[in-house]
Amino acid sequence: MELVVALGLIVFKVALLIAILLLLPLPLTWLERKIAGHMQQRMGPMRVGWHGLLQPVADGIKLLTKEDHIPAEADRFLFKLAPILALAPPFVVFAAIPFGETVSVLGNEITLYISNLNVALLFVFAVIGLEVYGVIFGGWAANSKYAVLGSLRTCAQMISYEIPMGFAVIGVVMLAQSMSLLDIVRAQSDVWNVVYQPIGFFVFFVAGLAEAQRIPFDLAEAEGDLGAGFHTEYSGIRFALFMVSEYVVMVLVSVLTVILFFGGWNGVLIPLPPLLWFLLKVAFFIYLFMWFRFTFPRYRYDQLMAIGWKVLLPLSLANIIISGVVFS
Amino acid sequence: MHAAQKLWVRTCKKTLRSRSEAAMSHALDKAGRWIGWAFFADLANGLALTFGYMFSKPVTMQYPDKEKWLPYSRYRGHHFLKRDAEGEIKCVACELCARICPCDCIEVVPYEDEKGNRRPAKFEIDTARCLFCGLCEDACPADAIALGQQYEFSSFSSRDLVIGRDDLLAKPGKAMTGGGVVAARLSTERDVLVEASEPRGYNWWRNIRRK
Questions:
Q1: What does the pLDDT look like over A198-249, one tens digit per residue?
Q2: Given an 8 Å threshold on Cβ–Cβ distance, is A291 in contact with B58?
Q3: Strands, DSSP E only, in chain A?
């Protein structure tokens, strides 16, 4: 009986998480378009629903009813597989992400995470690295020059930025003496890691921007020079899957930044429920992503590589040495 | 020391001081630039600018749904024919407008009415060909034709755009107000129509952020 209840709880949590993550892009696209509009002195969507609130639903219906087009020269199997490969890893990563300690429902303590891996950080980086396969396969299978160029760029970009990203969190692991995300957050109950690890935070966030393929590092789908990059040939629901994956990765990078550097659900000054603190911080970082998008231009490809290898990598290595000397 | 010598020394000291000050401020500028560069001052400036814009008024005019632009009275929109004080059509069918029209889109056929006046039996303007230059208005010796403020007369058929005499007489004339955004409503019941209620609106230019 105990086992059944525990299993049921896990299944419930997984289902809830998947539902939330699948629906999250709807409000986020609305928010992004609104923020874009107001930053450019426009209004954004206004016509469907109150202040365009139902616009994402209309967009969803449009995408679902569109023709599912596969180019004649495409590799059909890989072409169909790619969106799933891009979508699955960000969802899998959330299995290891804690959203809080526990919450009591009807007298039972329920943990706000699916699993507390002791190597959660390693797991996160390993799985998020798989997302690039979807992008590469998508670009390759479409058999179009823009798509191939986009996926080649993504490939190089991911490799260049995952290294500094991995190095940047080593300082955090040193401070927490653990790779479990739960322990990392607990270690920040007094002082957030961003105070001890400003360089680490900087490197992680910039690399995260590149990882989520957001402006100023969105070279994979640079619409100015590549059509739409790796998803040039995708339409309808498959395109929607790529979009969902992009938004989930953006949420994931925000969540990771909050957990690793901004104290997770630890609040300051104002006593709010821990989960609310967590969500507020994540929302701030998501806003930051959008704010960046409508402020900065895109980096040139050689600049992107130079930043990755000549600035972020040395900075992250220096951060490891400094943390090692100072905190040992 | 002579007065001239004193003056010389004083000038020298002054020059030296101003030079060292210039070098000092140059060095400070340079250091400031480097500090700014290290802490991404330019990126922060850009972010502050977009953040400011986010809370400034949008310049969008929600045209068919909620708002509509009333043009100034000098606007050259759809033509209309005027009547005189007795309600008689002012046009004397002299065909000067048809002659001056650069697109040859006006067709006038005169006749003699019961009072013996020359009046147009047919007065057709092909607005599909018209370029709204206003020359017909300038050429008219009887002040009978003018270009009004109406600008919504798109159509699915170019045949519908040939406007006859009676329709031109029924068109709205010039309003003295204009140059503002008024509340409007899009009505699609019978025909697509943007209905405006009030004659005077707010000046759209007030929404422009000038800094």
A1: 899 999 999 998 888 887 888 777 677 777 777 788 888 888 888 888 899 9
A2: no
A3: 102-105, 108-111
What's the token pair of residue A243? Answer: 């979009």
Q: Could you tell me if B45 lies within 8 Å of chain A, comparing CB atoms?
A: no
Chain A residue with the nearest C-alpha to that of B65: A47
Measured CA distances, A199 to A262, A290, B38, B39 (Å): 13, 22, 12, 12
Q: How many CB atoms lie within 10 A of CB B136?
A: 24
CA A327 to CA A176: how far, in whole Å? 11
CATH 3.30.70.3270 boundaries in chain B? 79-171
In chain A, domain spans = 1-65, 70-99+115-327
Nearest CA in chain A to B58: A41
| pLDDT for position A304 | 86
* pLDDT at residue B199, rounded to an integer: 66
User: Over the stretch B1-41, which tens digit does the pLDDT of each residue have?
Assistant: 577 777 777 777 777 777 777 777 888 888 888 887 777 88
List pLDDT tens digits, range A259-305: 999 988 888 878 888 888 899 999 999 999 999 988 988 888 888 88
Residue contact B53–A43, C-beta within 8 A: no
Residue-level pLDDT at A248: 92
> What is the nearest CA distance from A75 to chain B, expressed in angstroms?
43
pLDDT average, residue stretch B181-185: 82
Radius of gyration of chain B (CA): 33
Is the Cβ of B159 closer than 8 Å to some Cβ of chain A?
A: no
Q: Which residue of B has its CA nearest to A43?
A: B58
Residue B208 CA, distance from chain mean position: 14
Is B12 assigned to a binding site? Answer: no
B62 touching chain A per CB within 8 A:
yes
Query: Residues A176, A182, A186, CA angle at the centre, nearest 5°?
Result: 55
CATH topology for the B79-171 domain:
Alpha-Beta Plaits (3.30.70)
Q: pLDDT exceeding 90 applies to what percent of chain A? A: 21
Cα atoms in the 13 Å half-sphere on the side-chain side of B144:
21
Q: Test B53 with A40 for CB contact under 8 angstroms.
A: yes
Task: Flag if A294 and B46 touch (Cβ within 8 Å).
Answer: no
Residue corresponding to tokens 């991911």 = A158
Selected for mutation to probe chain B from A33, A35, A40, A307 (highest B CB count within 10 Å) is: A40
Residue of B nearest to A39 (CA): B54
Q: Which residues of chain A are within 8 Å of residue B209 when distances are taken between CB atoms?
A: 41
